[in-house]
Amino acid sequence: MKHLLSINDLSKAESIAILDTAQELARVSDGPMKKLPTLRGRTIVNLFAEDSTRTRISFEAAAKRLSADVINFSAKGSSISKGESLKDTAQTLQAMGADAVIIRHGASGAAQRLADSKWMSGAVINAGDGTHEHPSQALLDAFTIRKHLAKSGEDLTGIKVVIVGDVLHSRVARSNVLLLAKLGADVTLVAPPTLLPVGVESWPCKISYDFDDALVGADAVMMLRIQLERMSEMFFPNAREYSRYFGLNGDRVKSLKPTALVMHPGPMNRGLEITADAADGARSVIVEQVSNGVSVRMAILYMLLAGAPEGEIIGINREVGAL
C-alpha cells in the first residue's frame, strides 16, 4: 500500500488488517508511555487547505505517538492563500524531505492528483477531498462499530447501519458506504431527495426517505452534518422541518435497540441534525470516535511508512509489549 486515497484502494483483508493494527496500537494510547519509536526520523506534513479540528489534530497526535516529526501546513498564513498552485506546494514539501503528506483540499481529486504526479515521492493520505472521500474517517467509524458490536478480527456481517443527512455534500458518507459494505454491513442511506447525489442508486446500499422506518432494527445510526458552507441554494424548506423529519432526537433514540450506537463524524449542528440529549446520551459514541481516530490513523501511518507487508501486523505486539 503506497497511498491511501480512497476506500477502493483497500481490499477487505487490508481493511481488516488496519482495524486489527489499530486495536493493538490503541494500547499505546491507553498506556503510561504514549509513544512508539516506529517512525523516528520520518517527516510527516499535514497539508490542510480547508479548516479542520478533529482530523488534523488526530493525524498530528497519531504521527507524534509514532515518534515522527510533524509539520502543520495550513492554507491560512501560507503561500496557498496567495494563489500558490498545488504543484509548487508539493515540490516545496519534496524539497523539505517529506516522507508523507496528509492532504485535505476543497477540490475533489486533489489527493489523487498529488499521488499520481511526479512532484513528490512520499506517501499521500487523503484527509478529505471536496465531496469525494474521507477514507480515514470511514475506517475509524468501522473500528468503533466493530469494537462494540463485533469480535476482533471479524468483519461487520449482519450489522445494520443507517446513515442520515446531507449525503450530497458528504465525503464521509461515500467512504462509509464503500467500507461498511465491503466489510459485510447492511447500509441504508436516509435523506430528502434533494440531498442525495446523482448516481447514488449505484452505491452498495439501500435508499430510504423515511427515517423512522429505517431505524427499525438498526445497530448504528450515523448522523451527517448539514454542510451549509457548501450550499449555494436551499435544499430543504427550513431547519425546523428538516429536524422534524430527518433529525435524531430523544424519542427516536428511545426507539432504538438497547445495544444500538449513535454516531456523528463532527462537527455537529446541535438542534438541526441531532439534539443535545441524543448527542450526549448513553448510546452516543461520538466522543469515542475521536479517540479511536488517533489509533486508526496511527495504524494507517504504520502500514504506509513502517514497511509492514500487506495484510500483516509486523512488530506491533513486540513494540507495544515493551512499553
Automatic annotation (TrEMBL):
Domain Aspartate/ornithine carbamoyltransferase Asp/Orn-binding residues, every copy: 158-304
Enzyme Commission identifier(s): 2.1.3.2
Entries under InterPro entries matching the protein: Asp/Orn_carbamoyltranf_P-bd, Asp/Orn_carbamoylTrfase, Asp/Orn_carbamoylTrfase_sf, Asp_carbamoyltransf, Asp_carbamoyltransf_Asp/Orn-bd
Entry superkingdom: Bacteria
Reaction(s) catalysed by this chain's protein: carbamoyl phosphate + L-aspartate = N-carbamoyl-L-aspartate + phosphate + H(+)
Annotated transmembrane regions: none
SUPFAM superfamilies tied to this protein: Aspartate/ornithine carbamoyltransferase
One CC-aspect GO term: cytosol
Gene: pyrB
Record text on subunit structure and interactions: Heterododecamer (2C3:3R2) of six catalytic PyrB chains organized as two trimers (C3), and six regulatory PyrI chains organized as three dimers (R2).
GO molecular function, one term: aspartate carbamoyltransferase activity
Keywords, sorted A to Z: Pyrimidine biosynthesis, Transferase
Protein name: Aspartate carbamoyltransferase
Taxonomic lineage from the root: Bacteria, Bacillati, Actinomycetota, Actinomycetes, Candidatus Nanopelagicales
Family: Belongs to the aspartate/ornithine carbamoyltransferase superfamily. ATCase family.
GO biological process entries: 'de novo' pyrimidine nucleobase biosynthetic process; 'de novo' UMP biosynthetic process; amino acid metabolic process
Domain Aspartate/ornithine carbamoyltransferase carbamoyl-P binding: 2-146
Residues given in the record as L-aspartate binding sites: 82, 171, 225
Record-linked NCBIfam families: asp_carb_tr, PRK00856.1
Function: Catalyzes the condensation of carbamoyl phosphate and aspartate to form carbamoyl aspartate and inorganic phosphate, the committed step in the de novo pyrimidine nucleotide biosynthesis pathway.
Residues bound to carbamoyl phosphate: 54-55, 104, 134, 137, 266-267
Pathway(s): Pyrimidine metabolism; UMP biosynthesis via de novo pathway; (S)-dihydroorotate from bicarbonate: step 2/3
